Amino acid sequence: MLISTQSPGKEIKVKISHYNPKLGGTNCAVFANGICMSSLSNGEKWETYFETNDTIACPIELDFGTRIMLNDTIYTCRDRGGAILMAGEAYWIDILAENVPYAYGEVRTAYIID
């Protein structure tokens, strides 16, 4: 068996958090009657991606549509957030999900997929 030594993309560091719009508060810009009325920053509905575990809010240094591989999951940048900024050399990513297997603020190696 041939083992590839090719990198999956450009190696970066990411600082991780997650958000759940169903909870309101800082998780949703427009929350009314127990429902998050906000859309993602790219104009799409957050509900479309909530269960797919493939959407992130990312800093403006990453274009919408940028794909990042973190462990074996590929996330797509579809959202922004006021606190989603560069954290030193790390790209802060905020995963749209109910739960994630990462601690808040955990820094990991990831890859920008071409």
Question: Quick gist of this model?
Answer:
The chain has strands at 10-19, 31-32, 35-36, 55-57, 67-70, 73-79, 86-87, 90-96, 106-113. It has 114 residues and is mainly beta.
Topology readout:
Layout: E1 10-19, E2 31-32, E3 35-36, E4 55-57, E5 67-70, E6 73-79, E7 86-87, E8 90-96, E9 106-113
Parallel strand pairs: 1-8, 4-6
Antiparallel strand pairs: 1-9, 2-3, 4-8, 5-6, 5-9, 7-8
Q: Which key features would you list for this structure?
A:
mainly beta; 0% helix; single chain; 114 residues; 6-stranded mixed β-barrel; two-stranded antiparallel sheet; Barwin-like endoglucanases
Adjacency order of strands in the biggest sheet: 1-8-4-6-5-9
Gap from first CA to last CA: 25 Å
- Output mean pLDDT: 92
Q: What would you call the shape?
A: globular
Order of helices and strands, N to C?
EEEEEEEEE
Second rung of CATH, namely the architecture of one domain: Beta Barrel
Low-confidence stretches: none
Major beta-sheet overview: 6 strands, mixed, barrel
- Total number of beta strands: 9
Instruction: From the alpha carbons, calculate the radius of gyration and give it in angstroms.
Output: 15 Å
Helix content: under 10%
Total helices: the number is 0
CATH topology descriptor of one domain: Barwin-like endoglucanases
Helix-and-strand structural type: mainly beta
Describe the protein's architecture and organization.
There is one protein chain. By secondary structure, the protein is mostly beta strands. The protein has a domain at 10-20 and 52-113: Beta Barrel (Barwin-like endoglucanases). It is built from no helices and nine strands. The two termini are 25 Å apart.
